[in-house]
Amino acid sequence: MDKQTLTEEKFEIDLLVLLDCSKLHFYKDKGNFISLEYEGNTYFNVRLTRLVPFYSKTTYISVAYDNEDNEFREIGVIKDMADLSEDQFKLLDEYLEYKYYMPEIKKVYSIKDNSRGFIFVDIDTTSGRKTICIRDWYSNFRMLSEKLLYAVDVDGNKYFCPDIEKLDRKSLATLEIFV
To answer: How many separate domains does the chain show?
Structure first.
């Protein structure tokens, strides 16, 4: 029997590249997309992503783009947007607030299960009262911590309640069997 030679696979390990905020220049291009000039390079239509979206709005912001082959590439991470100039901070903050817009759940009136994998949740939010439809409630209507409720409706809209214990008793009773 021949001895098989095992070859060791090697993988490139991604390192956290922290960007120097004093060298970043973000701007809106002609298409109204955010672009970036950094260390002699220009990146068009950059994507900004909060790496810890529920716990920090302005720290650990990933900056990425698609290269000419449409491959996702991360440029690096802004450790703290407070290190940006005022106008740069404002531009990124407006972009991120729009991207991560999530109405806060203030009250839960009812939850109805249609026995087909969907639940209909009648809620009052910071954007008004609405009934949202949630598919696969176990994955899309859940607690991310002891107090933080997160919901995603069938259209991809996201909702949250930062502290369910601050909801009224009826809302808590309504939520009880689903969270």
So the answer is: 2
Closest CA to 61 of 39, 40, 44, 36: 36
Same domain, 45 and 78: yes
Stretch (H or E) spanning 104: none
Count CB-CB contacts under 10 A for residue 90. Answer: 12
Q: For residue range 127-178, list pLDDT tens digits in order.
A: 999 999 999 888 999 999 999 999 999 999 999 999 999 999 999 999 998 8
What's the CA angle centered on 28, arms 80 and 21, to 5 degrees? Answer: 25
Examine the fold and report which residue of 99, 118, 143 is the final residue of a domain before the chain moves on. Answer: 99
Is 5 part of any domain? no
C-alpha span between 50 and 100 (Å, rounded): 9
- Which strand (E) or helix (H) includes residue 138? helix 137-140
CA atoms of 70 and 63, how far apart (whole Å)? 16
Q: Which domain holds residue 49?
A: 21-99
Pairwise pLDDT comparison (33 vs 5), residue with the higher score? 33
Q: Which SS3 state, helix, strand or coil, does residue 39 take?
A: coil
| Residue 6 falls inside a structural domain | no
Are 31 and 84 part of one and the same domain?
yes
Instruction: Give domain status of residue 1, yes or no.
Output: no
The rounded distance, in Å, linking the Cα atoms of 146 and 68 is 44
